[in-house]
Amino acid sequence: MKRLSIPVSKMSGCMEIKTPANGSVTIRLVCRDRPVTVFGRHIGMDLVCIQLSGIDVIFGMNWLIFNRVHINCCEKTVVFPKPEENLHLMSKKEVVESLKEPVEVYAFFASLKLKGEVKMEELPVVCEFPDVFPEDVSDVPPKREVEFTIDLVPGTSPISMAPYRMSASELNELKKQLEELLEKKFIRPSVSPWGAPVLLVMKKEGSMRLCIDYRQLNKVVGFLYD
Question: Which SUPFAM superfamilies has this protein been placed in (predicted)?
Answer without folding.
Answer: DNA/RNA polymerases
